[in-house]
Each structure stands twice: as structure tokens, then as C-alpha cells.
Predict the 3D structure of the following.
Amino acid sequence: MTRWMCIACPILMASLAVRAAEKPAAPPWTPTYKIRPDEKDRLTPADVVGPDGIVYPDWRWAGVPGGIPQVPDRARIEDFGGKADDDADDSAAVEKGVREVARRGGGALVFAKGVYHLDRPVLVTDDGVVLRGQGADATRLVFRYHVPEGTVRFFRPGDGETIGPDTVVEVHAAPDNLERITVAAGGKTVGEYVCGQHSGGTYLVRVTGESVVRRTGVGRHRLTAVACWTGGRTAEAAVTVEVDPTRRLPPGSRRYPTDGKASAAILFAGDYRSGATWRLAADGKRGDTEIALTQEPDLAPGDALALLAPATPRWNQLVRNACKWGYYRRYEFRVEAVSGKRVRLNQPLRYDFPLADTPTATRVYPIRRCGVENLSLEQTHKLWTTGVLFAGAWECWARGVTVIKAGRNPVYGTMAKWCEIRDCVFDDAWYHGGGGTAYVGWDRCYDCLMENVTTHRMRHAPCVQWSASGNVIRASTFHGSDAQWHAGWTNENLFEQCVVDARGGTGSYGHGGWASPPEDAAHGPEGPRNVIYNCDITSRRTGLWMGGMNENWLVLHNRFVVGDGPGIVAKTVSFDHIIRGNVIALSGAKQPAVHLATADCTGVEIVGNRIYGGSGQLVAGPGRPLLANDNAFAPPTDAPPRPQPPVPSIFRWQRERASTQRQSR
């Protein structure tokens, strides 16, 4: 008797034939993404036929275009009053240096060896600025900012400053047991934040000056802030400001987030809220490189454009989305040309923007070509701040950075495109609870790249959420966290050559990979054609858990070492997947390799997988695979061999193919 027990025996094949004869449930929309290479009429410019005959998304756009540049040194932090190892606050020197580097045309603000201190968050709004140390072990930034227990303060504006409609008013309060922060102008409430289940460690509220102007009008007025904590404790702070309704910033200059969760020790901020918006005049279809608008836009080649299809009642019903907030279908493009009402984009649409959902195009003004290099950042107090945050950012990067004990997330992006995190180490966070904490990945980010990153004691890593699309996370190791497609219809992202150990106790759900289900009122469902390729995933629960509405996920050539659960679970209209060439090691005698938990999980192909241990059952549940060939079973083992994919990296294969094609033209 041979070591392998191949499932392609006559009895089982007859069983599969009977199952296939049963009429499967029809998906709620026309299947789009599972395409054969010979279906030329279905292939679009957004598709790439792989070396294995599988049609993949196109990731050749991912990362800083042309790679992270080596920008020249432009100034030293000591030129602006900063000094290593003196225990004094260097945050003002950093901001002065940033402005001067920008004035000189961009480059690096250089830190010497030693320890520098940041006693308040640093804001960067100028393009082309890089913060550069002498190495993560040599240059240390220590972030010491905190709000003392029982206090509330105005972070901005200062007493006596003038504010206009575009000014951001920001109030901070001690976070532990915080219930709410209320901001008032002239005795009238202009903003409030009420902490809830998913507030995490929120400690701030931001209010635009527009609400202050509406309440007070022109003149000198008193702003007050009241914080309330559990048990009825309160505190109050106040500033007096001059209100000037005419003091407006031009479009592109509102480089400060209004989102109260967008806070960081070092914040690189662009403007993604002041640009003009136009309605689409025709459906934007997957693969299109041109869109039609209802009026001629004020756009030029090189401008940045965000497309948004909101979560309308029609779409929510179609995908059974129970979450009534957040971003689901949003993407960013560079304008290549404008002809009347038509705009040509730099790359194809990855999915449809149907007129039925009132899609819009908005000009955005990202901060560009900024970065942090060769230093470490450590946070010393429990405060819900990200280490380095790229918000409204294009072509920005973190390279050679170590973050120790971030408040929230170590290095993160939001509303960003073509950003890159490379050769970094992230170790622990102050918060591991709800509300978006201890994540490593991309949030509302497009065509971004993460490579050679090592994490310890994170919660969800690698992670993508809230319309994240076209991103690549590869060749990285994640200790103690789970892989997550966490919220908001993420699509066409690649996790490749990653080692994920999801057995940690710092907030991981315990599944090797987890994709939020449509009934989840805090996250909503995940979108189509996410890819897990040549990864090594260890879990204490299921190897991969797909919650539903997932179309054509590609699960290829991975090793899953699984604890208490099936190797792969799909439920609730999770369909057209290709599960090929994986090694699945199951710890118990009753576990199936794949569990299709609902009958509407149709069109699934399970081919060429090797299963160690378990029940000997390839597929359990009411769902029936479309195809099940060349799968085999072997005795249980804790250390099965890893599979050998046709190419080690589908990302690099695409890049090399694109380079070869360019050279042949």
C-alpha cells in the first residue's frame, strides 16, 4: 500500500459526479473573476494570465514607482535646535527642519546617533521630506507625549489664535475610562465624540472651524471642552480665539485629517477632503482606463483622482452588508489626459463603478515622496497614537524603521497610494483591543507594497481593510498575529511568501486568516479575488476562514498547519475559489480539509492539495465543489513539507514579465 491515499478512486469520483449533478445555488450577481486564459472576450486590461494558467489581478503597480529613491541629505536636526541625548523636547526642531528642507526643494532631515525626544506629535505637510537616522540601533526617537489622568486640553488652536472655516480644532483628554468629549463655542455645542464599542483608546475629538463659524460668527469667542469619564468625573479646558469667516484655505491646503482616529507620533498628511467632486456620466466598468463625467472637470495630467461608489441600499442588499458605514469601493488614480468630459486614467479599473450607485470622482491633493528611514521610534505612555502615519499620501515610505510599543499601529497608511514599508521591525503595541489597534497593513490604500517586515505581539498582521485594493504584502514574518481581510470589501490584494503564526495571545482571532462576514455590523463583507500565495500559516483554529460574499479567492501553494478546525472554511455565497497545490496539516481525527458551510458556496475548485491527518474527508458541509482532482491524504504530522509552486513569487514573476515586455517593444 502506498504512503499517499489519492481521492481519485472510482467510488469517490462517482460520489462527486452525483454531487455535481445537483443544481447549485446561483450567485447573487454574474460571476466575473474566474476566467480561463482562452476566454479572450472576458479578459480585461486588469487581468494577468499567470504561468500556471490562472488569471490573476495585476500587481505590477504596487509600491513606490521606480522603487524607493535615495534622496540627498539636506539639513541636520542640530541646525534647528535639536540635540541628541540631552533629554529635551526635539519636536519643535523637527517641524522647523521639515519646513526648511521643503523650502530647499526637498531631501532628508538628518538625525545623528543618539536619543531624541518628541514631547508632542510631529506634523509634516510638505512634499519631498525624509526623516533619516543612522540606523535603527543608532538613532532613537522616543515619543513621550501623553495626557495626564483626569485632564483635558486644547491641542490646537492655541489661546489668542485666529481660526477660520478650514481650521481644525482638536481636543485631547486622558483616555482611560473616557466616555465623551464635548466642544462648545459661545456656549453652543460644535462637536462631540462619544466613545463606543469600537472606539479603541480614542482620546481626541476634531472639529472643523466651519461649525464654530456657524455658531458664533465673526469676533472674539471662547471655546470650551468638557471631558467625562466613567463614574461621573469631568474636567474642562478653554481657549479664546478670533473667529474670521473669510480665512479660508485654497483647495489642496487642508492637510490635516478630520478623522479623530488619524493621530500619530509622526503624521505625514495630505489633503483628501477639499477637492472638487464630479458625478460619473456612464458606468465605470472593470478594465476601463477612461471614465466619463457629467461636466468638464478642472483636471490636468498628473492630478490625483479618487473614485468612490458609496454603499447604497441597492448594493448593501446585493452583498447582504449589515455594516452601514465605512468605505467599500474606493480607488485612487493618476490623471493621464482630459478631453472634454472624458478622463483617461493611469491604470484599469479593478471593479465596476455602476451608475446605479451614484459614483463620483474627487480631486485629491496627496502629500508626495516623503519617508522615514533608518531609525527607531519608541512610545513610552499608553496613548492611542500610530507611530508613523501616511494619511492622504502618495509615493511615501518607511525603510529600515523599528517601532517599539506603538500606541495603536506601528507604521500605517490611510487614503494612500503607491506607498511602501520595507525592511522594518514592529514590536508590540500599548493597545490590543477593538477599534483598529495593533494592525500592520493597509487601510483605504491602493497599490501599496510591504516587504521584509517582521512583527511581534501585533493583533492583526498582515491586514487590509476598508476598500484596500491592489496591495502586496510579501516576504515577511508575523509572530503571534493573524492574517486579516478585516473590513470593507477589500479586493485583489496579495499575501505572498509570508510566515504567519496566529497562535498568539495579543488579540488574534486564532484563525490563520480571517475575512469578515456580511452579517458583521462593524466590518461588512470582503470583496473579490484576494490571493494567498506560497505562504506558511500556523493557527490554533481554522487555517483560513472566509465569512461570505467572497468571489474567486485564489488560495495557492500554501502550507496550513491547523489547530482546532478545518483547513479552509467558506460560507454565505463564498464562491468560485481556486484552492490548488496547498499542504494542509490537521491536528484532530475529525477535521475535514475544506468545509463549505452553506450550499451557496459554489464553483469551488479543489485541486492538487495534500492533506496530512484529519478525518480523511476532503469536503464537508452542504456546499459542493465544482472540481476536486488529484487531492491526496497522508498520516498526521506536525511538520509537513512545504509545497513547491510553479514560481516562488507571482509578484516578481509579473514584474519581470512586464520588464521583459518593455524591453521587447
User: Anything to note?
Assistant: The longest strand covers residues 219-229. Residues 1-21 have pLDDT under 50 and may be disordered. Helices lie at 10-21, 91-103, 209-216, 313-319, 650-664.
